[in-house]
Amino acid sequence: NAGVTQTPKFQVLKTGQSMTLQCAQDMNHNSMYWYRQDPGMGLRLIYYSASEGTTDKGEVPNGYNVSRLNKREFSLRLESAAPSQTSVYFCAVLLPGLTVYSSYNEQFFGPGTRLTVL
Amino acid sequence: DAKTTQPNSMESNEEEPVHLPCNHSTISGTDYIHWYRQLPSQGPEYVIHGLTSNVNNRMASLAIAEDRKSSTLILHRATLRDAAVYYCILTKSGSARQLTFGSGTQLTVLP
């Protein structure tokens, strides 16, 4: 997970509270992703950003907003947290030299943020 | 989208080879086959990918059936550190927008 950091590592929220999950990379990648992983399940894409200033919805975007203000950082915001958003959140970046239009797909993942909403 | 089918779990003895199967009978001609793994409490980690030919890298080998309807990830000598969930994922040519993870295969390595 070198080069991709996520903060915080753990967070407990009450229903209705808001928070922002931060992801930062120091490897100068263009494309970044936010996934969630529920217990015993595979990862599902929430949002992705092909490049600085652009974002697109993934499979499960409802209840989330994202921001890609610069190349290095991609943040995920929960405006009004719900228990259904209890999950582990992973940020990922696409291998340098690839784009979202590339033929294969190698992503580096961060260590994750474990979020519990009570 | 083409789907993949993997066994829920497999066991292997340490220092023995492991063959992890994946069925993808509806694969299209330009779909790439990727394998990722997820160690406990970590994010997924890229292992290998291929299109038609068998592939080798420092981590593993990927054997792809001639009709491409199945593939096998081969770990040549399993170590305790290889205990993880292994995901077989198809991606469309020209589209690196997302990885679609199924439930994967939980590999247990016995000492």
Kindly state the percentage of residues in helix of chain A: under 10%
Structure class of chain A: mainly beta
Low-pLDDT ranges of chain A: none
Number of strands of chain B: 9
> What general outline of chain B do the C-alpha atoms trace?
globular
Outline the biggest β-sheet of chain A: 7 strands, mixed
| Oligomer status | heterodimer
Strand count, sense and closure of the main sheet of chain B?
5 strands, mixed
> What proportion strand of chain A?
35-45%
Shape of chain A: globular
Taken in chain order, the helices and strands of chain A follow as EEEEEEEEEEE
Count up the helices of chain A.
Answer: 0
Query: Biggest protein-protein interface?
Result: A-B, 31 and 24 residues
Low-confidence residue ranges of chain B: none
Tell me roughly what share of residues is in helical segments of chain B: under 10%
